Structure formats: structure tokens, C-alpha cells
């Protein structure tokens, strides 16, 4: 199979012919039709993720067709159109029994714990637990956004933060997951303040319904407080950086909820969290880590109704030969880049 591979952290990203994977007993192999390029892939390439072992094939935001099925799989057949959350849960532990697959301690992640989907084929474990069937009308490139960024934003805004109509929501970082959060929060009836350092990203945030935008180089907490009459009800760090995390917590009004969505690898420094403010204002600090496969029907229903439009997040479709440059240049282009040609 053709696949994007790197042999050193931060080293060259090249497309090579590699052996295609075999399915595990409880797993499948999917022929990849679309695979998004995400900041998490960039972190893996940089060596920020201890799960990544060299040489490595990145990619975890995928949609495709089942090409091979392990003997123990009951629910899936060759030819099924599927996507998968980037957290592949075991289906057998206490967290999984409680429905909290996104924090399964035995999880695998394509593109991190094993080779990923910036390749013609990818192996996925515990297929009966993790695969999500795609409606025929959903395109593969749109479906790829549901494997990580769009679903992660949906869970953060709707299920973790519990955003209510009329609330102010601040979104710090308008990359793929941030813009997804803007669109989802607006659909939930919230008023959104979008924060970024790139004019193109802020323009997209306004197009997706943000009521106001703030440049990330400004005094962000003060600007959010001005715009919202005292601070946001909900604030999300969708970038994952020391400054955006701290700004997010400082952007909240009393009783506000901060949700950490962007990854914060300690190698990039730890954020300073103003705990005195957390106490005095009774703030809630929440984490959000993907979304379990069983939670997808609500999201897919809102997409089918046209109330959520993840297809608008996909601003660029490229071939695998251009994936390395896109990964290395993460953040240079607004919106989500998806690889849709692998041959
Ligand atoms: Zn991702
Ligand atoms: Zn589990």
C-alpha cells in the first residue's frame, strides 16, 4: 500500500510502498477514502506523543470501506462504509461498561498506537465497539471530519459544556476543531466570541455565525469580558497551548465552565491555571477527549437535517503526495485539509 511515513521525529515525511495490515481477530482493515490532517498528527510527528514508535504512519480522522474482517467480528462486512472515533475503546472494561469509551484505559488509536490512515489501508481494533456506519448521502471527506475534530467539538460543546441557548461561548483557537465548535455552539443557540491570530480563521468563524471576533495578540480576557458583559459562560481552549488555556480560564464569568479540547503535551510547557480564580468564581475545569461511537447517532441526525454542516469545514482536498507538506505546515491554511486521493 502507499502510505505517508516518517522515520525520525520532525524528520522527512515521504510516501512509500509498505505492507498493508492484516485485521486483528476482533478488528477490521479499512480501505481509506478520506483522511483529515490534524494538529494531533503534527504533535505525533514532532515526538510529543509517547505512544508513537518509529518508523510511523500518521493519520486518525478517517472514512472508508471495510476491506477485511477478523474472525471475531459480528457487525461488519466487507464493503460497509464506515468512520471511527480516534479513540478505539476495548469494549470490556469498567469505563466501557459505563458508556465512557472515550476514556477507556485500554484504548488504541490509529496513527498513534499503531500505523494510521494517511495510507491506502488502516487496521482498526474492536470493530464491533468502535465502527460507525455512514449514511449513503454523507460524503467520505465530510465523514472524515467526524472521526476527530467535528465529533470532538460536538461532545465538548453539547455534552461536556452543556451549552444552552443565549449563553456566551468563547472559542480560543479557530483551527479545524475551533471552527467546528463555533458552528456547533451557534447551532445550539449560543452567542460566540472567536479568538485567533489569523485573519482568515476569524473570517471563517464569522461566516459560521460568530457574533464577535478577538485577535489573539490583544488582551483576550479583557476583550471577551467587554463583549460579553462580564465574561463568557463557557470557554473552550480548542488550540491547546499554555496561553490559550490560561486565556480561556480568565475569559469566564462567575460559575463559568472551561473545556480543554486542544492537546497540551507537557513537552511544549504547562499552562498556568489561575486556581485562585477557580475558587473565587466557582469555575468548572472540564476535559473533553473525542466521542464514543455510540454517541454518533445524535450528531449524524443533526448533520442529516442540515442543522450542522461539517462539509463547510473542509476547505481543501489533496492527494497523499501533498500530505507531508500539509502536515508540516499545519495551521497555515484555515479550515480542514482532507486527503482524498491515495493512488
Ligand atoms: Zn484529529
Ligand atoms: Zn475499555
TrEMBL record:
EC numbers, comma separated: 1.1.1.1
UniProt keyword Hydrolase present: no
Top EC category: oxidoreductase
N-terminal signal peptide: none
Domain of life (superkingdom): Bacteria
GO molecular function ontology, one term from the record: zinc ion binding
Enoyl reductase (ER) domain mapped to chain residues: 10-339
SMART domains cross-referenced by the UniProt entry: PKS_ER (SM00829)
PROSITE patterns in the record: ADH_ZINC
Keyword Metal-binding: yes
Keywords, ordered alphabetically: Metal-binding, Oxidoreductase, Zinc
Family: Belongs to the zinc-containing alcohol dehydrogenase family.
Protein name, per record: Alcohol dehydrogenase
Organism: Petropleomorpha daqingensis
Amino acid at each position: 500500500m502507499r502510505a505517508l511515513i516518517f522515520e525520525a521525529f520532525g524528520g522527512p515525511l515521504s510516501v512509500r510502498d509498505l505492507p498493508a495490515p492484516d485485521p486483528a481477530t476482533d478488528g477490521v482493515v479499512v480501505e481509506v477514502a478520506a483522511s483529515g490532517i490534524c494538529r494531533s498528527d503534527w504533535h505525533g510527528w514532532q515526538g510529543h506523543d509517547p505512544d508513537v514508535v518509529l518508523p510511523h504512519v500518521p493519520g486518525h480522522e478517517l472514512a472508508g470501506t471495510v476491506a477485511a474482517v477478523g474472525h471475531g467480528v459480528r457487525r461488519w462486512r466487507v464493503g460497509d462504509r464506515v468512520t471511527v472515533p480516534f479513540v478505539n475503546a476495548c469494549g470490556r472494561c469498567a469505563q466501557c461498561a459505563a458508556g465512557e469509551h472515550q476514556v477507556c484505559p485500554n484504548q488504541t488509536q490509529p496513527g498513534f498506537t499503531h500505523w494510521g490512515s494517511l495510507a491506502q489501508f488502516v487496521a482498526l481494533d474492536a470493530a464491533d465497539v468502535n465502527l460507525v456506519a455512514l449514511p449513503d448521502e454523507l460524503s467520505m471527506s465530510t465523514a472524515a471530519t467526524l472521526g476527530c475534530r467535528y465529533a470532538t467539538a460536538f461532545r465538548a460543546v453539547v455534552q461536556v459544556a452543556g451549552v444552552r441557548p443565549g449563553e456566551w461561548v468563547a472559542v480560543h483557537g479557530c483551527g479545524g476543531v475551533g471552527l467546528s465548535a463555533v458552528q456547533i455552539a451557534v447551532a445550539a443557540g449560543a452567542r460566540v466570541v472567536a479568538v485567533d491570530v489569523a485573519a482568515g480563521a476569524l473570517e471563517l468563524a464569522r461566516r459560521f455565525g460568530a457574533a464577535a471576533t478577538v485577535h489573539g495578540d490583544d488582551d483576550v480576557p479583557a476583550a471577551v469580558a467587554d463583549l460579553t458583559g462580564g465574561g463568557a459562560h463557557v470557554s473552550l481552549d480548542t488550540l491547546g497551548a499554555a496561553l490559550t488555556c490560561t486565556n480561556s480560564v480568565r475569559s469566564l464569568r462567575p460559575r463559568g465552565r472551561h473545556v480543554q479540547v486542544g492537546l497540551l503535551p507537557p513537552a511544549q510547557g504547562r499552562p498556568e491555571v489561575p486556581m485562585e480564580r477557580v475558587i473565587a468564581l466557582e469555575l468548572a475545569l472540564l476535559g473533553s477527549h473525542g466521542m464514543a461511537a455510540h454517541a454518533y447517532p445524535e450528531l449524524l441526525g443533526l448533520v442529516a437535517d442540515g442543522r450542522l454542516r461539517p462539509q463547510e469545514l473542509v476547505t481543501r482536498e489533496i492527494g497523499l503526495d501533498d500530505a507531508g507538506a500539509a502536515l508540516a505546515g499545519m495551521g497555515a491554511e484555515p479550515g480542514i485539509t482532507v486527503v482524498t486521493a491515495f493512488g
